[in-house]
Amino acid sequence: MLDFIKGWSRRAALPPGSLVHVGRRRVQTPSATVTYYNGQGRRVVENAGPGDVAPVADEVCWLRVRGLHDLELIRGLGQRLNLHPMLLEDVVEATQRPKVEEFADYLFVVLRLLRFDQQTAVISEEQLSLVLGRGWVATFEESDDTPLDLVAQRIAQRRGRIAEMGADYLAYAIIDVMIDSNFGVLEAFGESLDAIEDQVLANPSEASAKALYHFKGQIIHLRRVLWPLREVVNFIARGDSGFFSQPVWPFLRDVADHALHVLDAADAIREQATGLMELHLGALGNRTNEVMKVLTIMASIFIPLTFIAGVYGMNFEYMPELRLHYGYPAVLAAMAAVAAGLIIYFRHKKWL
């Protein structure tokens, strides 16, 4: 069954806005962390609850929730931030496609985090939900090992502009690191595909055909996840949303450029896989043609020999050649001469 439809039956017949976790439990115990920071410093609240989320005017508030199956925690945090029930439903349904939705008081963005296992050549994905409000950002992550840790390190070490900028820049930084993480996945995927290409060129076999069909399915998965990114980044980069200030617009256009590079790379991988399929089929066809050529040449050599043997194998009484003293070696010599002549002719034609 396709992963992105698993679990949908659990929410059948439920009213809109019902919280039902759909997806894998990637952490044992969900947790929430709240980070407050500005140009002067930062403070972090671990194992936070709804009461610890209190955005203020002079600090950026970043709420990180890791693990989506604690529905009461997510419901409480959503109520604290006045998040719409339909938004929370999309947060815990971890099978959403990348999208962006604008509400009156916040902007909702869904992104997918890709991972590639080179041992099994399988692409897996996780959902990241981001909500940008006035002075605060909330992120909901399926696991506790995501590229957002890099953003948290930049805040802690006060590297770059992030400590001096507002919540909209934090949202940009999160979107940027999520999109850039795809380059590593595509690079590893391309290296595995190059290994299959070397195998196809050296010795096309049933194993390489199975590997190619497997990669073809993974590319379909990859394209399904990445293609909606175009709509997300185009909406954000146009500056139509009032949640991003003008100083952040150039950075958003850079994110859109990165997303286009990701999509171009995915298309290049898809074309490479298609070309490998055609190359594999062509190589198998050439191998079959070589076998048929050898068999045809052998048959062409033995057809006249079979004809000669058939003529002198007929049991007629009056066949003068049968009584010649040197008839048998003469026939053998003639057959050898015919075979040699055919071989010389085939070599002259470069068929051998």
From TrEMBL:
The keyword Iron-sulfur does not apply. The chain crosses the membrane at residues 294-314, 326-346. InterPro entries: CorA_cytoplasmic_dom, CorA_TM1_TM2, Mg/Co-transport_prot_CorA, MgTranspt_CorA/ZnTranspt_ZntB. The keyword Transmembrane applies. It catalyses: Mg(2+)(in) = Mg(2+)(out). SUPFAM superfamilies: CorA soluble domain-like (SSF143865), Magnesium transport protein CorA, transmembrane region (SSF144083). It is a multi-pass membrane protein. GO terms for cellular component: plasma membrane. GO terms for molecular function: cobalt ion binding; cobalt ion transmembrane transporter activity; magnesium ion binding; magnesium ion transmembrane transporter activity. Keywords: Cell membrane, Ion transport, Magnesium, Membrane, Transmembrane, Transmembrane helix, Transport. It is found in: Cell membrane; Membrane. Belongs to the CorA metal ion transporter (MIT) (TC 1.A.35) family. Mediates influx of magnesium ions. Alternates between open and closed states. Activated by low cytoplasmic Mg(2+) levels. Inactive when cytoplasmic Mg(2+) levels are high. This is Magnesium transport protein CorA. It comes from Desulfarculus baarsii (strain ATCC 33931 / DSM 2075 / LMG 7858 / VKM B-1802 / 2st14).
